[in-house]
Every structure is written in C-alpha cells, then in structure tokens.
User: What shape does this take?
Amino acid sequence: MEQKILKFLKMIHRDVIKNRKYYTFGYQQEYRKKVNYNYGYIPFITGLEFFEKEEIIPKTNPHNRCGEIREYTEFITVHDTASGAPSANGRAHANWINSMANDPNSTTTVSWHFTVDENGIIQHLPYDEVGYHAGDGTSVKLNYTDTLIKAENLNCKVTISEDGFFEINGNKTFIEAPKNNEGGIVKNNQLPYQGINVKIGDEGTYLLGNTYWNNSYGILANKGGNLNSVGIETCVNYGADYIKTMRINAYLVASLLIRYNLGIERVKQHNFFSGKDCPMTIRHANMWEEFLELVNIYLIYLKEFKDYKFEFKSLDSEFLDNSGKIIKHQNGKVVRYLVKVSKDDFDKEYIFESKLDNISFEIE
Assistant: This one.
C-alpha cells in the first residue's frame, strides 16, 4: 500500500511550480476581460477549507424547477457564470436563482444544480432533477445508434466525411450527420471542442449519440445536456481566487462522477451541448486539461484513499501556504512541504521539494 500512496503523492507533487497570467471574462462592460495573475500551486487535497451548502430552490416557477427526474445521468456539465463583477460570487448567484424561482411571473427559463466559488459549493436543484442550463432543449431525448464498428478505446476521433456521414478513426459509418441551417454538409471545424458523443456498447462496438445543428453558434452539438447531466456554474468574479474555485470544482466533479459511476471522459464543457464559448475563462486560459487532472486526483483519493488521513503542511510558510498555494514568488526558490499519511497502524511522513519557476508575465 505504501507504494500506491507514494505514487499518488507523486501525482500531486510538482517538481517545478508554474506561474501564469490569464483572463476572466464577464458580460459587464467594465469586467469584459480582466487580467489575473497566479504564482502557482501544488494541488494539496487538504487545506482548501470550503463549505458545501444545500439551498434547493422552490417549485413556485416551472421555468426554474420543472420537477422532472432524469431517466439517467450521462454527463457532468461545467459552465462559468460569465459574470465578472467582484460581487458576482456564489451567494449572489444563489440569490438570483432563488429570486426567479420565487417569482411566479418570471419567464426566464434557467436552472442549474450547483454554483461554485472560492468559498464553497451551493446546491440549487436536487441531484437527479432535470435542469435548464445546457442549451440543447428537452424535447429530444438522448439516444445512441450502434455504428457496428469494433471499438478499440474511447480515445477515438469522430469526423464527418465529404458526403456528410460520421466517421470514426477514418472508418465511415452509415449514420448521416445533421445538415446545417442551409441544408449543407457540416465541416469538421464546426464540431465542438470535445467532439461528438461516443461510447462503447455492450457488444464492443462504438455507439454514437444523437446530435443537432445549433444555428446560434454554428456548431454541430450533442444532445443530453439538459436531460442527462448535472450542471455546475463556476464563478469568475474579478478579484476572487479563480484557481481555488477551479480546485473546489474539481472536488465536486469527482464526487459526482463517483455518485453516478461515470468515467472522467463524461465531464463536458457547456460548449459540447450548444457550441457556446463556455466555460469561457478556463477555455481561453488553456486550463481545461489541468482541470481534468485535478478531477482525476480527487477521483483517486475518493476511490482508493478515502479512509486514510492526509495532512499537507508547508515547511516554507512565507512562500507556500497549507493549501498548496504560492503566496510569494522568488525565481528559482525551492519550497518544501510535509505530507503525513495515517490509518490504523500505518503512519508515515514524507517531505517533498518543489522549485518556483521563473516569472512568466509582466504586470499590466
């Protein structure tokens, strides 16, 4: 077991801690694009200190609470709020959705399951209730068509042939892709960032999920967002610690994957279901793969080490705090931290060293 624990700790560890400049995006003119700086972090699985709170909105307004139970859960959908004002935190969004839900005259059809900010997680809908967040409607159910193509693994590429049929790894299927709004064949650069929904069926062949042409965004998008996913809104309010928000969200997503027995490949951007540039901040900062890595760390922890007690402690508190965040930067500085792992008769301590990378940005 100690070898498994060491392997896990090395997955968390960073030999070199990168820093970055990135932007948060909001609909407000003043906060449309705001620069942010981060000195880097090590993804400690303890020390984030966040809350989890349930505030289920009432059924007063069916535009927000439809009351329909999902037939099954296929995806976890990640959004960001696109509200950049400093006050647009989780509490503000909880108040907003509650205000709509309590107003029988409101005609705004929107709801989602969780809001995440730097302080924690607020739940708005029951876990298994349908929400209105993905932009793919609810009139058409998610279904799959067997391509009859023998599956190798889920790391496959779905494209569209010149005559308009889906292809998997270059193998043409009999399934014709939807046309665009002008009746033309969709081009491969008009597919979502995460591609077309595919999974492996019981017979070991690839199954393709149903798709539709989203004219608003000019994308051939996937079905299943509203009817078959849990929706999470991630706060991007300026001045908040977005990296911490991302880390808390990774914990939530991992917990949901375990709850619904889903693989990490079922974590999808809002873009997957509509073509919308959402979650915009994480997409433009090129942090999506980093986010999935954080999700995977929590998945392993919750599946394999939940019964172990982990304690991460900075040994250089001037530069590194106990959550793993770099709070002061110095080019080439080596920081040290201790990890104590215990369970029953198992009690071990490990010390790691990480180097701060040279600063990569100039302050604007």
Notes: The helical segments are 2-12, 90-101, 242-259, 271-274, 280-284, 288-304. The chain has a mean pLDDT of 97. DSSP finds six helices and 20 strands in the chain. Residues 242-259 form the longest helix (18 residues).
